[in-house]
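#structure-requests
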Amino acid sequence: MKLFYSKTSPYSRKVKMMIHEKGLQQAITSVTCNPFDEVPELGAANSLGKVPTLILDDGSSLYDSPVICAYLDTLTPGRLIPESGRERWNVLRSEALCDGILDATYNIVMERRRDTQEQSAGWIAQWKTQVSRSLDHIFHLRRRKPHQKYVSFLYLLFLYLLDGEKLNLPELHRSPNRKNPRHRR
């Protein structure tokens, strides 16, 4: 198999973490690329030209990190994503929440790259609210104890989210609602 990815894509990093967690490093060749450049093989495998994209051994392809992670999880024993039931939907909801936080954070970063007079303060404020509210929600979810069998994937998602916070928006990640109770003054 061949994975097209970008080192700057948090979604690519999520897939790379899943590959590592499942022990699939030897089964997948990773190809670093810039999806903003014309990459013919990537474009042929994914008409959107987005990363991550996984080309399977039969030549077909999968794209979008949730789809790729779900597929990779089926390749080795010891599922990280539950196959069915309420726990499956809880895990997939957590994954969607983490992806949504990174989507909103990315939007803020891209909006701030525009000329100041062209930036939308309203959109930036909306995305900041989404991120802050969602991080508060994750903090409260983290206090719950999910079914032990699936803690590994939830931990993976949390690490992927923390890695995505490298987008340098510290004002989004500080909140009195997310103080660690062990660090009281």
